[in-house]
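Hi support team,

I've been running sequence recovery on a batch of backbones for a student project. Most finish fine, but this one hangs at about 90% for roughly twenty minutes before it completes. I'm not sure whether the input is malformed or the queue is just slow. I've pasted the structure tokens below so you can try to reproduce it. Let me know if you need the job ID as well.

Thanks,
M.K.
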């Protein structure tokens, strides 16, 4: 069965983000960092954030993951960079709904991440797609992810 041109475009964008992820690496200055993993497939993400005036001033991620996990993290960093924390929460909520096959408020706001809506057809891949977004939400909600004198990293396992 041949893929439609749109399906080919979506696959190409996902493969590009996976092969050449945006904002991949570490930050020199960070306010929050978190490490999370998906034990069902072994994906691991380390996410670092620098905030300024309740906005994401800078963001970076590292770790190991499948193509969906890596592409989603890359797309997420593009979507949230420069946004205020309320906008970030709305985008994270919309993305979670999207990959579950539900309607979302602001599909355009998700940028390239909107192309991961097809993951809803593959329930086993939903955790791969949402790992970076869950890490972002947890890092912003949990005061223990803040960087103190010890440089504490909050490790959790998403089940």
């Amino acid at each position: 069965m041949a893929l439609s041109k749109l399906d080919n475009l979506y696959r190409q964008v996902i493969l590009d983000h996976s092969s050449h992820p945006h904002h991949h690496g570490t930050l020199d200055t960070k306010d929050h960092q978190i490490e999370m993993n998906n034990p069902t497939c072994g994906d691991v993400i380390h996410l670092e954030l620098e905030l300024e005036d309740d906005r994401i001033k800078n963001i970076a991620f590292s770790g190991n993951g499948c193509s969906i996990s890596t592409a989603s993290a890359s797309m997420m960093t593009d979507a949230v960079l420069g946004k205020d924390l309320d906008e970030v929460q709305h985008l994270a909520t919309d993305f979670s709904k999207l990959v579950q096959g539900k309607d979302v408020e602001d599909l355009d706001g998700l940028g390239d991440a909107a192309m991961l809506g097809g993951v809803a057809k593959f329930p086993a891949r939903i955790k791969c797609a949402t790992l970076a977004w869950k890490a972002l939400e947890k890092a912003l909600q949990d005061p223990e992810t803040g960087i103190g004198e010890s440089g504490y990293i909050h490790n959790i396992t998403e089940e």
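--
Follow-up from support: It reproduced on our side and the slowdown came from queue contention, not your input. Strands lie at 32-38, 43-52, 55-64, 154-157. No action needed from you.
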